[in-house]
Amino acid sequence: MELYTPEALITEDEISLRIQALGNAITKDFEDEDLVVICVLKGAFVFCSDLIKKINRPISLEFISLSSYGDSTNSSGNVRLEMDITANIEGKNVLIVEDIVDTGLTIKTLMDIMAVRKPKTVKLASLLFKPVKLKHPVKIDYLGFEIEDKFVIGYGLDYAGRYRELPYIGILNAGN
Ligand code: PRP
User: What pTM was computed for the model?
Assistant: First the structure.
């Protein structure tokens, strides 16, 4: 099987610089506060692991798993909660970490789930935002990059379960 090297959209160095800036902003905004970071599996795990290293605040880390795409390149329109966090977030500052906001359905669903648990604050960090696909208005407090309407892979993002291990954001070409 031939090794396929996807074309880069955002390089490792660009990602790294942007994450440092996001980490600085989060550190400043949460001065004298603790944070519960919620990593949205699976796609956000790479971004989240790099981001928390740049946040100079006391953090507790939680994981949640929501899925809408299955093995397709289009959202199914249904979001399943596959795995919940274990912590009580009532009265806490919550930072949700996503890899991409596309239609906005996943994050809208997640925000609704979180709101009934009465956190003190809820903020969103997303590495990528694809505005052309947005159907559900979302406020991204800490955004890495706005991108055009290409199917992106790598740095945690997959196509049919593949390419999450790429160290950069690449573009999936038809036929690969
Ligand atoms: C992807 C991505 C976001 C969501 C964004 O998750 O990680 O959570 O889709 O799309 P939306 O804004 O249209 O809802 P996916 O369902 O592919 O699961 P995964 O993270 O486990 O790959």
Answer: 0.93
